[in-house]
Amino acid sequence: MIRHLATTLLFCSLITSGEPLTNLYSFDDFQKLSESLTKAIPQAKASTVCIELEGGGSGSGVIVSPEGLLLTAAHVSQKVGQQFEVVLADGSRYPAIALGLNTSTDAAMAKILPAVGHPAFPFSPLSTKSELRQYVFSLGHSGGLDLERGIVARLARILEITPTSMKTDGTLIGGDSGGPLFDLQGNLIGIHSRVGKLTNSNTHIPIDNYKNHWDDLLNRKLWGDSTYANAGLLFQGMRLLEQDDTLQIFSVDTDSPSDIAGVRAGDLLVEVQNSPTQTLKALMEILASQENPEQITNEINIAIRRLGEDLNLTLTIDE
Question: What are phi and psi of 23, to 5 degrees?
Fold first, then answer.
């Protein structure tokens, strides 16, 4: 079953890449890539976790030591000492605590807190080797925890590499943040940081950014000059992050007006009260304009973009 899935994923990725399949690989090359992916996915999935945050939001992470050290994104763990729950692929749950955060690169480390005598956790090895156009695969809890569906695996290619970031053309949405990017041998090469304007244009944190500051992260250091760790603005139950002239919905609080209206993690907030919201500043100006008593209402009209489709929703606010 896994082998068939891996082969299908790889074939779909190759034929939709915009280049003739015959110009990329021989049949033997294709078969070897498929076999590598088949071998790598089970262990990679076993080490990938869902991070459940207070208030109903979630992200992803990956275990990198048998003792339960895990890597994630700073905007997922949010702050040093933050406590949350992690869920493994088999459904087992453990408390965890955020360690260090580098808010400039969005890198963060956390530690699972198992009971005394707990056996070793499944984990993934690290690698700093990557190159342009290399085939890789990503894992994550897209849209949040769904144990029946399981962890979502997607193929991608590396489009850009810098000392602090890596871009790929794989599909990611909310809930994938903090999740792992692997080479086809199952080595961890990056952590998901930001979803681009298009769902197939994403930014990851290269593993070098963790290895070069391992002790700082382990010793709960907080440093950097960005606002990733603040996890953005909370508006009617949706947590918003401003990235690339878009407002990305990182998480949605359970039973909040946004949750009840149908907003989901991974959506983009594009309009509020028929006014465009490309930045947090624009949103704040719209909200400020609603403070006139004559304009107070218990309904807020918003437009979201989900996988390229615009949807109009109404948030009902308690009076």
Answer: -85, -10
Please report which helix (H) or strand (E) contains residue 31, including its range. Answer: helix 27-47
| Residue in 297, 107, 95 with CA at minimum distance from that of residue 213 | 107
DSSP letters of 260-311?
Answer: HHT--TT-EEEEETTEE-SSHHHHHHHHHHTTSGGG--SEEEEEEEETTEEE
Mean pLDDT (whole number) for 111-127: 90
- The yes-or-no verdict on residue 286 having pLDDT over 90 is no
Rounded to two decimals, the pTM is: 0.71
Helix 2-15 / helix 27-47 crossing angle, nearest 10 deg: 120
**133: closest CA among 32, 44, 26, 24?**
24
Look at residue 10 and tell me whether its pLDDT is greater than 80: no
Task: Give the Cα separation of 252 and 239 in Å (integer).
Answer: 6
In 3D space, the residue among 147, 170, 192, 155 whose CA is nearest the CA of residue 6 turns out to be: 155
**How would DSSP label each residue in 208-243?**
HHHHTTHHHHHTT-EE-SSSGGGT-EEETTEEEEEE
> By percentage, how much of the chain surpasses pLDDT 90?
38
For the chain, what is the mean pLDDT? 82
Please check whether residue 278 is in contact with residue 222, taking contact to mean a CB–CB distance below 8 angstroms: no
Whether 187 and 126 have beta carbons less than 8 Å apart is answered as yes
Domains along the sequence of the chain with CATH: 43-226 (2.40.10.120), 232-316 (2.30.42.10)
pLDDT at 71 over 80: yes
Each residue's pLDDT tens digit, 226-273 = 655 445 567 888 878 776 677 878 778 778 889 899 998 778 899 998
Q: Tell me which residue of 228, 219, 226 sits closest to 250, measured CA to CA.
A: 228
- Contact of 208 with 217, CB cutoff 8 Å: no
- At 315, list the tokens: 């948030």
